[in-house]
Every structure is written in structure tokens, then in C-alpha cells.
Specification:
alpha/beta, Aminopeptidase, six-stranded mixed beta sheet, two-stranded antiparallel ribbon, 8 helices, 23% strand, binds zinc ion
């Protein structure tokens, strides 16, 4: 109950801040300071003027306040999510694909194979999805070879609602790179929305750096998926401090929670 009350007053303050801003008039793009309970909310998108009203972008303000923003496909509803609220995944089927496997190890750093990290994170993701009521199907459950096409064919066979491919990143040039990177197939608004949500929820769950959402139509698993699909890069194996995190079962569980929550928020839209 106290949480509910806090959430309600939080939204009341947000709506007040936004409606006050809407009454400011002007003649061009301008910088507007938004304050919540008297404290400045740092957001980095300029407001703009239309019909003598100053419009403040909802996404920029809401994300600056730590809310997760979901636009519904219709474009006429937006969900602002505060705190840990996660919708149910009952009745949904999600295919989780641990990248690489068998002779295809992916990157190897300090003797750690990407394929093994991907499997550990994907198994925890499947468990987190099932805890939310989904049927989760892994494309592989052991250290085995599997073609890129077999992975998305499995998703089609199961009539999956989503296809999520789990990978870990590496950089040959920047040994200090860290953070979460999510990818989608260009031209698919659904996949872009999914990848963008996964980025937000994974960063939110782990506190990792945000490496953005990227158009990666070059990736076969995204190109051949017949349902909304995203490939997530959970962190940089090439950066020793992040490699240690990626091997830590409790950090893997946070990544898994972030992925499951992103999937649930997407499918609730
Ligand atoms: Zn990979």
C-alpha cells in the first residue's frame, strides 16, 4: 500500500510538471527546465513550440525520471512503468537462443568461451520468463553446434511470440568498453520497439552502461526471424572487469531478469 501511494503521488507530480510546461508560450525551439518537487530533472532533448504552446517530449522526461516508456503499437497509448511492476507472460511462447555453441565458440577471453556464457545467461532467462508464466524454449541446452537457420526455424515451429538471441560482446580496439547493446532488424518497427525496451530493462536491472539500440539487418538470426526478434549483447568479454561480471551467476541472473522484463513489457503493449 505505501508503495502504491508513493507511485500515485509520483505520477501526480509528473503530470503537474508536464501540464505546467504545456502552458508556457514561445516562438521556437527552446530549452525548458523541468522540476520535480522543486528539483531539476536533467533531460537532454529540447522542447518545441506548436500553436503557441511549449511541448516537452514525454519520453525524454520520463526516462530522466527513471521510468520505462512503452509506446503501444496503435500509437495512441503510452505506458510509463515505475518500479518493478512486470506484466504476466501467461499464454506466451518465447524462444531464447544462446548464441554460438559446439565448435563455434564465439569470442574467447582468458579461456572463457562466449558460447558458455551465452548458455548460462539464456538458461537463467528461460527460468525468469517461466516465472512470469511464459513457455520458454531454448534453441540449445548443451555445448552443441546449431546453424543460424535452425534457430529461427525452431521459433517458427513453436509459433513463438518472440525470438531472443543472447550474446556477449567484445572489442578488438577498446579494452575498456562496457555495457549493454541491443540489436534489431531494420524496417521492423516491432523489433525496434522490442530491442529498445530490452536495452532499457537490461540497463535498469544491472546498472551497466548503455551502448544503445542498433539496426543489425546483417545478422542472419534477425533477418530470418518471422516474429519480433532482438539480439542482446550482455557486456564486453574483452574488458577484464566486465568479463568477471559476466561469469558471476548473480550478475547473470540480473541480466536474465532484465531480458524477461523487457519481453513482458513488450508483449503487454
Ligand atoms: Zn556472439
Amino acid at each position: 500500500m505505501p508503495l502504491m501511494k508513493r507511485t500515485t503521488s509520483f505520477f501526480a507530480a509528473l503530470i503537474l510538471a508536464l501540464s505546467l510546461m504545456l502552458n508556457v508560450s514561445g516562438s521556437s525551439r527552446r530549452t525548458v527546465q523541468v522540476r520535480l518537487n522543486g528539483e531539476a530533472v536533467p533531460f537532454d532533448t529540447a522542447a518545441y513550440i506548436e500553436n503557441n504552446r511549449t511541448m516537452v517530449p514525454l519520453r525524454a522526461v520520463a526516462e530522466a525520471l527513471g521510468l520505462t516508456v512503452t509506446w503501444h503499437h496503435s500509437g495512441s497509448t503510452v505506458d510509463l512503468i515505475h518500479g518493478d511492476w512486470t506484466p504476466s507472460l501467461a499464454g506466451r511462447t518465447i524462444v531464447v537462443d544462446p548464441g554460438h555453441g559446439g565448435s563455434a565458440t564465439g569470442a574467447v577471453y582468458e579461456g572463457v568461451k562466449e558460447s558458455a556464457l551465452n548458455l548460462a545467461i539464456a538458461q537463467k532467462t528461460a527460468a525468469a520468463l517461466e516465472a512470469l508464466g511464459a513457455k520458454a524454449v531454448l534453441t540449445r541446452t548443451g555445448d552443441t553446434d546449431l546453424s543460424l537457420y535452425a534457430r529461427t526455424e525452431l521459433a517458427s515451429r513453436h509459433k513463438a511470440d518472440l525470438f531472443l538471441s543472447v550474446h556477449c560482446n567484445s572489442s578488438a580496439t577498446n579494452r575498456e568498453a562496457t555495457g549493454i547493446y541491443t540489436a534489431y532488424k531494420g524496417g521492423s518497427r516491432q523489433s525496434l520497439a522490442l530491442a529498445d525496451l530490452l536495452r532499457q530493462t537490461m540497463v535498469g536491472a544491472t546498472g551497466a552502461a548503455d551502448m544503445g539500440t542498433h539496426n543489425r539487418s546483417d545478422l542472419a538470426v534477425l533477418r530470418t526471424a518471422r516474429m519480433p526478434a532482438s539480439l542482446v549483447e550482455c557486456g564486453f568479454m574483452s574488458t577484464p572487469s566486465e568479463l568477471r561480471l559476466l561469469q558471476d551467476p548473480s550478475y547473470q541472473a540480473l541480466l536474465a531478469q532484465g531480458i524477461a522484463r523487457g519481453a513482458a513489457l513488450y508483449l503487454a503493449a
